[in-house]
Fold:
Amino acid sequence: MKIVILLLIIFYSFTSQAHKFEADNMIVNHPWMKVFNMNGAGYFKIKNIGKTDIELLEVVSESVNNIEMHTIIMEEGISKMRPIKGGVIIKVGESIEFKPMGYHLMFFEINEKLLEGELMNTHFRFKNSKDLIVKFKVESNKSSHNHEH
Ligand SMILES: [Cu+2]
Structure:
């Protein structure tokens, strides 16, 4: 029993460490997603480790009809989701976290069946950097993504 637990711990730390995507100038950490019906929401942390600011313009995927970057605004005391106008700038040395109740990706019309633990391929497109392939892991049981569009 102890061995099983130990193996689980090793496996878990291995997978969580492996779950990041890097380029010379950036690291995208723990990209994960929730799926509800044909739609979903995506979260990750991006860090600029390069020498110039980078701007994330859009995220595209062959598995999703339309991906939007959203932010949350307060309107009359109610939080609402709105598409981000333009891109998201990540300054040198800084990180931006896409998380529930903050910046997030919306996946509209996912065209493949994704099960818990599976990965979905996306491409991050930047204004002043090469594309980066990022795979989002389905973790449907995490805290809910409240929505009011
Ligand atoms: Cu949204």
